[in-house]
Amino acid sequence: YDNEPAVSFKHVQKAIAAYERTLLTRGNLDEFLEGNNEAISDKAKKGFELFLTKGCKGCHAGSSFGGLSVEKFPLRTWWNEWLNVQVVNDKTTVLPQFQLVDRTFPFENIGGFKGKDNNKLFRVPILRNIHQTSPYFHNGSIKELKDAVRIMGKYQLGIVFSDEELEHIVEFLKTLDGQIIQF
Q1: Confidence class of residue 92 from pLDDT cuts 50, 70 and 90?
Q2: Peptide bond into 125 cis (omega under 30)
Q3: Which end of the chain has less neighbouring CB within 10 Å, N or C?
Q4: Global pTM?
């Protein structure tokens, strides 16, 4: 540590980071990943597949499922501002169907967290115990996890999830719940 004092911002930062790494709690997903196929429901398995294939894992990575990076939010503002038509796959016809979609960004107040040069960068939240930690987002304006997933799909991934997909993803996120450590 060269000539740094024993107590410095850098050392305190490292100590807090080391402590926080010990706070991860094991959920049913951990049991599933270790080979217990019965540890999570079929809905949760489908949700896990959606989480992996739709792009969620791009930001929510690592054993904590997030917290490792800082990302722009909303990512898709350029897309949301001008594109209000969505192609809908309808299994009853071979022709694509179109519907108008409201792409208005739901957060007028970004809570003063604009980052350097007002670039709207946010730390990607850890998803462990996410089901137990509502309300969601930087300003606590979203009460239900299903709505938070819907917003993230729409504004970060450019995807409008079906109600069934939302149910599956929320079931998966519940498998990340573990016993919260009491102090």
Answers
A1: confident
A2: no
A3: C
A4: 0.69
